[in-house]
């Protein structure tokens, strides 16, 4: 691949993005063309392809443009892609373990067998997020969150997870019933959600912009969307969170 070049149209097609996106990445300092030919035609070499892959991996994780720019400056593309490759392999292993765990639970329920508690929760260790949290928000954010999680103890962690399950079920029921996102019932759920987030962020009052941004992440990240029943359900939650934020600001 050394010495090869791709036009902006070719690279856009290969990466599944638009030429406009590539020009935007250049404008914001993420990805400059390797050279500009006659008539202003942009060309990209193998190093640019590696950098674009890195950018798209970070975007897939929901990382914003400013944070991506910092990340690109902190490490070489080869080092960063090696980090992402390790994380992706760990994530693949975790998902395989979760599939086996759920298959075990479903089989026990279907056949009336005995469920192995340890096997049922194989692959659900919160430490799988360490590399991702560190990449997004820094090592201090991970250490602070992990310390809080450990201090909760087993009962506290179970209660925290149960509250999320109850919130997701409440949102699903409200959506199924056609309730308005700015109505009393749904906004009551968002109020609980806001308190739940406050606990995990270790603050009395989560920043409104950050709370609304979290709703956007629920839709953008398929793993987070799955926790609420899929993209459409996650969009309902996001819209309800936006309504909550708007009401807080108006008030």
How would you characterize the overall build of this protein?
This protein is mostly helical and 251 residues long. The chain folds into 3 domains: 5-74, Orthogonal Bundle (Multidrug-efflux Transporter Regulator, Chain: A, Domain 2); 75-137; 139-251, Orthogonal Bundle (Globin-like), CATH 1.10.490.50. It has helices at residues 8-15, 19-27, 46-60, 65-74, 77-111, 117-120, 130-137, 139-176, 184-201, 208-220, 222-226, 231-250, and strands spanning 5-7, 35-36, 42-45. A 3-stranded antiparallel beta sheet has the order 1-3-2. Helix 7 (130-137) crosses helix 8 (139-176), helix 9 (184-201) packs across helix 12 and helix 10 (208-220) packs antiparallel against helix 12 (231-250). The longest helix has 38 residues, at 139-176.
List the helices and strands and how they pair.
Elements (H helix, E strand, L loop, with lengths): L4 E3 H8 L3 H9 L7 E2 L5 E4 H15 L4 H10 L2 H35 L5 H4 L9 H8 L1 H38 L7 H18 L6 H13 L1 H5 L4 H20 L1
Antiparallel strand pairs: 1-3, 2-3
Helix pairs in contact: 3-5, 7-8, 8-9, 9-12, 10-12
At a glance:
It contains twelve helices and three strands. It has 251 residues and is mainly alpha-helical.
Structural class: mainly alpha
E-strand count: 3
What order do the helices and strands follow? EHHEEHHHHHHHHHH
Radius of gyration: 22 Å
Instruction: Please mark out the parts with pLDDT under 50 across 5 or more consecutive residues, or reply none.
Output: 113-126
CATH superfamily label of the largest domain: Antibiotic binding domain of TipA-like multidrug resistance regulators
Q: Overall mean pLDDT score?
A: 77
Main sheet summary: 3 strands, antiparallel
Give the overall silhouette.
globular
Query: What is the highest CATH level, the class of the largest domain?
Result: Mainly Alpha
- What is the helical fraction, as a range of percent? over 70%
Question: Which architecture of the largest domain does the CATH hierarchy give at level 2?
Answer: Orthogonal Bundle
| Adjacency order of strands in the biggest sheet | 1-3-2
Number of helices: 12
Number of domains: 3
CATH topology annotation of the largest domain: Globin-like
Percent strand: under 5%
């Amino acid at each position: 691949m050394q010495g090869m070049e791709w036009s902006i149209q070719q690279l856009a097609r290969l990466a599944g993005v638009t030429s406009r996106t590539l020009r935007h990445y250049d404008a914001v300092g993420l990805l400059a063309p390797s050279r500009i030919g006659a008539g202003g035609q942009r060309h990209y070499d193998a190093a640019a392809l590696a950098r674009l892959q890195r950018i798209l991996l970070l975007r897939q994780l929901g990382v914003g443009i400013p944070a991506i720019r910092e990340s690109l400056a902190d490490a070489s593309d080869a080092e960063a892609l090696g980090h992402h490759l390790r994380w992706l392999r760990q994530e693949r292993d975790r998902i395989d373990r979760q599939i086996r765990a759920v298959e075990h639970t479903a089989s026990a329920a279907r056949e009336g067998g005995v469920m192995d508690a340890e096997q049922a929760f194989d692959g659900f260790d919160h430490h799988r997020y360490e590399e991702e949290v560190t990449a997004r928000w820094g090592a201090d954010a991970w250490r602070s969150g992990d310390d809080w999680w450990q201090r909760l103890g087993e009962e506290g962690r179970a209660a925290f997870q149960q509250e999320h399950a109850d919130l997701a079920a409440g949102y699903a029921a409200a959506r199924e019933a056609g309730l308005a996102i700015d109505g009393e019932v749904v906004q009551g759920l968002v109020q609980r959600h806001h308190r739940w987030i406050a606990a995990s962020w270790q603050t009395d009052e989560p920043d409104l912009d950050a709370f609304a941004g979290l709703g956007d992440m629920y839709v953008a990240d398929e793993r987070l969307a799955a926790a609420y029943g899929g993209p459409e359900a996650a969009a309902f939650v996001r819209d309800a969170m936006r309504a909550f934020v708007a009401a807080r600001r108006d008030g």
